[in-house]
Amino acid sequence: QVQLVESGGGLVQPGGSLRLSCAASGNIISIAAMRWYRQTPGMQRELVATITSGGNLNYADSVKGRFTISRDNAKNTVYLQMNNLKPEDTAVYYCNVDAYTRPAGLLRFDNYWGLGTQVTVSS
């Protein structure tokens, strides 16, 4: 099993910045892709950014040029630096990873979700 704990959310004024962190723990062999999603009430969860184990990056068009995803493999942690925040960025942000684990000696590859952290952009 893998546990994901997000942090760094909060209330920020338009134009401000926040840095989200997501630390993975558990019986981890390695982590492949790491992602950030976001969701607002009544809407589907939206993929915001992805970073692969090889460092390839992908962003939603709505955040390109403003958000930066990065990872620290030694710490099993993924970050999302969010600059020039807009009210429409308000959402619960979720961390998501694909990870290899070895429970009871058997290699597994599964997808895991964090519980989310609230980001509110408002004046």
Quick rundown:
This protein is an all-beta fold. The protein has no helices and eleven strands.
Describe this structure in words.
The chain has 123 residues and is mostly beta strands. It is 0% helix and 59% strand. It has strands at residues 2-7, 10-12, 18-26, 28-39, 46-51, 57-59, 67-72, 77-82, 91-101, 108-113, 117-121. Strands 2, 4, 5, 6, 9, 10 and 11 form a 7-stranded mixed beta sheet that branches. A 4-stranded antiparallel beta sheet has the order 1-3-8-7, with no helix packed on it. Strand 4 (28-39) and strand 5 (46-51) form a beta hairpin. The model has no long low-confidence stretch (mean pLDDT 97).
| Overall residue-averaged pLDDT value | 97
Rg of Cα set:
15 Å
How many strands, which pairing sense, and closed or not: the largest β-sheet? 7 strands, mixed
> What letter string, H or E per element, gives the SSE order?
EEEEEEEEEEE
Quote the beta fraction: over 45%
Q: State the helicity in percent bands.
A: under 10%
**Count the helices. How many?**
0
How does the SSE layout of this entry go?
Blueprint: E1 2-7, E2 10-12, E3 18-26, E4 28-39, E5 46-51, E6 57-59, E7 67-72, E8 77-82, E9 91-101, E10 108-113, E11 117-121
Parallel strand pairs: 2-11
Antiparallel strand pairs: 1-3, 3-8, 4-5, 4-9, 5-6, 7-8, 9-10, 9-11
List keywords for this structure.
123 residues; elongated; mainly beta; seven-stranded mixed beta sheet; single chain
